[in-house]
Every structure is written in C-alpha cells, then in structure tokens.
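We were asked to recover a plausible sequence for a given structure. The inputs and outputs are reproduced exactly as logged, with field labels preserved.

PROBLEM: sequence recovery
POSITIONS: 373
GIVEN STRUCTURE:
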C-alpha cells in the first residue's frame, strides 16, 4: 500500500475546500477559520537576548505563525529576540499568530503578512490556486509530530475498528484532517458524509481535549502537543504515529512560505530573517531543554497557558527540527491529491514552488551543508 495515498482521499467536503479557494477573495472558508484575525489571547512574552543593533536594513517584516509546538523556530526566534536582532533597529518586526493555516494563507495572499510558518496543504492550495505566482517555500522547519490517539476504554486494536467510530481533527481540510480521511478510505471505510460508517468531526484542538474527556469522540488525529496531552491528561492510547506512514519516517509538517512579492522585492530582509531561522534551528538542536523553556514561555503568553514539563519533553521527542523542507513528501502528497481529483483537471506543476537560493547562500556563509532544491 502506498503510504502517501493516505493524505488525500475523495470526499465531497474536501472538494468544497478546494472549490472555495477559487473565490475572488481567496477565502479558505471550507477549511475552517475564515478570518485572518490573529489568534493570540495574550501578548508575546518580552524577548530576551542580545540587544538589537543597527544592521543598515530598513522596512517591515510581517511574520505569521501558529502558536503550536510544530512551529518551534517561530516561538523560539521571537522569544529570545533572534529575529529582531538579525533584522536590526531599522526594521520593524510584526508578529501575527493565527488559529489555523488557511487563515494565515489568506492573510499572505491578501498582502497582510510577508512570511509565514505553515503546513504543506495550505501551501499546495495557495500555489495551485494562484497559478504558481504568489508564494514560494523558502526553508524547512519541522518534520513529524502528528499522531492518531484513541481512547483506552474502547476496543481499538487495528484499522478494522474504525467502523462505527467518531474521530476529531483540528480543522476541516487541514493536513491532519486530510490524513485521517485518507487513512479511513485506504482501510476500506467511508466517512458518513460519503455514505459510510466513520464520522469525522473537525474542531479546534482545545475542544478536542474536552470532547475526548467527555467520551464524545473515540479518538483524534492531531499534532503536538495535543497528541501528548490526550495521552497524559486524558489517558488516551497512541494508535499510530504518522511518521510510520512515510519513508524514513520523514514528512513535512511545517516550512516557511513567502509571498513572491516580498521575496523578490526585499531579498535582503529575507536573507536576514533566514539567517535567524538557521540560528534558531541550530540552537534548538544543540540545547533542546533550554529551547523548550523559551518556547513554553511564548506558548503561555499567546494561549494563556504553558505546558507541563512532562508534556513538553514528550512532545518534543516526536518532532524533527530541520532546515530541509522535505520537498519529496510534499510532491508525493500533491500527486496523490491530483490523482484523487482535488487539484483540478490539469495536473499541477510545482517547478517553481521552492526557492531555496537565499537559504543555501546563508548556509554556505555559515559553513553548513546546502539543501538540494
């Protein structure tokens, strides 16, 4: 069985997701949150680290991200002042956290942000629906960190036990939602909206915890730290680590997407930002414990609550921090999506989706291996 076919399964609901992207406003309404309003419930914690000095650069960098553990460089770079220091006194850094990827993409396409940490599916959709003109992947961030968690008080020993069950995902049409729907289909079942017996309930991650506790769902396909929280706080059971479905256990969960207007118009700002992103990646890899502390402070500031040491440490072990955007995993997913009818009648060509030139220049300057594009 081809593991990549588990990422895009035919369903009328997901077809609506794709169709909604054609709208003039480019609103990803069918994917979930339709606003581009920042998701923060609090202000980010004050950045620490080296004082910001003049770099000779001027302008503004508007950065989007999700306050999730799967966006660690964003939280770390903001929290310890790496981004501000790299950009310098003359550059204003505006950070804009979002509840979900489609809202971040909407803001990017509307010209409200310049760069965003984002998952693969929104990037694919944005590229296809703008005919390859509007966005470019400029660096990788993380791989893995997604699991299928089921309740420990129900019988769920194999995929056969999907029958008649009810599961949650973070958002209709997001990366995890698509992955679950395809897992269902590849194992011989259909979702209820397609006449089958398995129900999928897209809802926010925080709501999933409550639904799980109240036994209103049987399981959930979610990213970290939510997967670990379901296990630690709600006595859930790990049924499947999504990494097991991919060759070498690697698949893109987060990368950096830039608007082509900003990339082409302000390459010096992109270079400075990517320099900080590379440094953040190295720092997290070198001292995960120290990085987790900074990241948790930002999560607390943005969401109102930090994570326990147990959840934080366990969640981090499931993530791979990487500068490689893992292009093959995205391209294979896109091929499967097209084969299943979700990317239009003409097969998309992704020749221009990746632009790693500036990243590789930064890596060369630092004496680090470059990434094949």
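RECOVERED SEQUENCE:
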């Amino acid at each position: 069985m081809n593991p990549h076919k588990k990422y895009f399964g035919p369903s009328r609901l997901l077809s609506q997701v794709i169709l909604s992207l054609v709208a003039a406003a480019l609103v990803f309404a069918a994917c979930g949150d339709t606003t581009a309003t920042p998701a923060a419930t609090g202000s980010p914690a004050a950045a620490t680290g080296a004082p910001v000095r003049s770099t000779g650069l001027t302008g503004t960098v508007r950065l989007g991200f999700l306050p999730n553990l799967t966006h660690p460089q964003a939280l770390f770079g903001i929290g310890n002042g790496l981004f501000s220091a790299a950009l310098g006194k003359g550059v204003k850094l505006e950070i804009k956290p979002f509840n979900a990827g489609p809202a971040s993409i909407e803001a990017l396409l509307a010209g409200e942000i310049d760069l965003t940490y984002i998952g693969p599916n929104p990037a694919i959709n944005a590229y296809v629906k703008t005919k390859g003109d509007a966005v470019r992947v400029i660096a990788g961030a993380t791989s893995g960190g997604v699991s299928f968690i089921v309740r420990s008080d129900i019988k769920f020993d194999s995929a056969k036990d999907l029958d008649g069950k009810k599961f949650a995902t973070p958002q209709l049409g997001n990366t995890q939602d698509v992955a679950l729907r395809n897992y269902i289909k590849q194992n011989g079942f259909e979702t209820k909206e397609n006449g089958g017996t398995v129900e999928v309930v897209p809802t926010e991650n925080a709501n999933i915890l409550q639904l799980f506790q109240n036994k209103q769902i049987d399981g959930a396909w979610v990213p970290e730290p939510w997967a670990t929280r379901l296990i630690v706080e709600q006595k859930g059971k790990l049924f499947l680590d999504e990494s097991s479905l991919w060759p070498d256990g690697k698949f893109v969960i987060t990368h950096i997407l830039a608007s082509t207007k900003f990339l082409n118009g302000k390459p010096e700002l992109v270079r400075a930002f990517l320099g900080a992103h590379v440094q953040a990646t190295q720092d997290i890899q070198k001292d995960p414990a120290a990085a987790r502390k900074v990241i948790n402070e930002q999560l607390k500031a943005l969401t109102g609550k930090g994570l326990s040491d147990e959840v934080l440490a366990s969640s981090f072990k499931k993530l791979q921090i990487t500068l490689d955007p893992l292009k093959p995993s995205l391209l294979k997913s896109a091929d499967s999506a097209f084969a299943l009818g979700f990317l239009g009648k003409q097969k998309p060509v992704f020749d221009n989706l990746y632009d790693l030139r500036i990243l590789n220049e930064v890596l060369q300057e630092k004496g680090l291996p470059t990434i094949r594009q």
